[in-house]
Write a structure and sequence with these properties.
With 350 residues, the chain is an alpha/beta fold. It is built from ten helices and 15 strands. Bound molecules: iron/sulfur cluster.
Amino acid sequence: MERVDLKGMGRTEVEAFVQSLGLDRFRGKQIFRWIYQEWARDFSPMSDISKGLRQKLSEAAMISELERVQMLESVDGSTKFLFRLADGPHIESVLIPEADRVTLCVSSQAGCPAKCAFCATGNLGYKRNLKAGEIVDQFIHAQRVSRRRISNVVFMGMGEPMLNLDNVLKACRILNDDYGPALSQKKITISTVGIVRGMKKFVVAANKLGLALSLHSADESTRQGIMPVAKKNPLSEIMAQAKRYTELTRRRISFEYLLLGGINDSITDAKKLVKIIHGIPCKINLMRYNPVDGLPFERPREKDVLRFQGYLNPRVYAVTVRESRGVDIKGACGQLAGQMIDQQNHTIKT
Ligand code: SF4
């Protein structure tokens, strides 16, 4: 008989599973805690469960794990993990320690079907959606390595979360569970390039989860030129869902704007941005493009970044220029490509 995989099951699912074995429901809560709080790899360390029961459980169930194939530390302290999924594809996560927080950037898909022109993941092609357990396991691996508690999780790694929303939301529920990692919903952010169908579903399910919308341009044709999904997801509908999110959650939305030299970094672009976000409680994160080998985009000039930011500053609630982390290990935004990196020049952790 094939054993049931408990990694990725929510608490009530684990409870239902143990009941199906004829065990008391509270055993499910115990096992859930061992998996997601103590990072147990099997049943042997579960000291509050008798040896006989552990034996019975290990015959019926298992706790799967991602295979970590590489771990690289950047000069700036961030760490990139490369994992191999059981059926072969690779995914990546990036751990980013800062003074006041430790953020983990997780993947939601192997590859990405969105195919944004500036992104290494998009140019890699799409393999498949990740299961909830494969998403949560990125957190467990990173937390084992991190000296500090991971305080924030952002779905900004490989993949478009709105195209795998059920598994993403399930992973969020596990991360938020008091018997699991107990991460506050406010510390978990889902990022999207603007998939209207997914956003409609997300805004009603979000509760207090954060939302980051990758706008990258407020001009429909520029957007369509760099993000093919924009052709089927008009800005008017995307912005309507952005506004609805702020109304239903009473939270600000983050607009992400990747500055690409000579493409979306002019004052005209900044004016269009101010216009389109009018009336939406938000903050804006500007990012400089990180060059990807073989892609025809350039990093913006510093004076253009400052001019863009300077125009926005007095006109919007909050605007920051986010510094990229992990550029040297190809762990920064848009650089994740699920590839091994030459290990000669980098610190390898084992
Ligand atoms: S930027 Fe995000 S949505 Fe676009 S191709 Fe890359 S991973 Fe996919």
